[in-house]
Amino acid sequence: MPIRLLLIEDNQDLLIELVDFFESQNNIVDTATDGLTGLHLAVVNHYDAIILDLGLPGINGLELCQHLREKANKWLPIIMLTARDTVADKVSGFEHGADDYLVKPFSLAELKCRLDALTRRHMLKKQKTNLSFSNLELNLATREVKRENKLITLTSIEYQILEILIQNAPNVVPRRDIEFKIWGDNPRDKDTLRVHIHHLRSALEKSSPSPTLLHTIRGVGYQLK
Which fold has domain 4-126? Predict the structure, then answer.
């Protein structure tokens, strides 16, 4: 299953090698070569995992990781890459919020195995039989959707969109992330998602006189709030 990955690394040669490696496996890869750019990307976008160098210009990897955990409330898997190999260095990495720590030089195969294990565990934690937000309930086993205990009929695409939004609520989900999770590397016409969102919003509002839950954030994406 392809994932969306953020690589934050200031060594251009290594960065190119990592991009080529992960893109060859059909993953979507964004990159940053300094801490501030990496932090910005991590906060405004949704990623399935981050691979983070420690020795970065701007702010270092430890500060970046800690900021994501404490200030931005981002709990996606983070693997730290560094040449620092002492026990104290590793302990510091974990204390700042890393999920794993890999010392340079390293094997790409080992990095992939560690990344696969982390993303797999992270996705399992997110999987629940029932998801809920406000007065909205979604049953992953039966694919039933209810609002104020009233059953809502959705198409397959509308259901997938709602599942993505409710898993991330109340955070904004960029439209390109929704498109990638539904259609992968075969994006539809730019208006296709907008039409599905319109139908989904109408279905949710018809089921309840309560305030609108599904909101459009212009130029960015969509959110439940």
Answer: Rossmann fold (3.40.50)
In SS3 terms, 34-54 reads as: CHHHHHHHHHHCCCCEEEEEC
Burial of 150 (0-12, 13-18, 19+ CB in 10 A): exposed
DSSP 89: H
Q: Which part of the chain has CATH 3.40.50.2300?
A: 4-126
* Architecture of the 130-224 domain: Orthogonal Bundle (1.10)
Q: In what order do the strands lie in the sheet with 4-8?
A: 28-32, 4-8, 49-53, 78-82, 100-103
- At 136, which helix (H) or strand (E)? strand 136-139
**What residues have CB less than 8 Å from 183, skipping those under 6 apart?**
none
What are the pLDDT digits (tens) for 74-109? Answer: 678 999 998 888 888 888 888 888 889 999 889 999
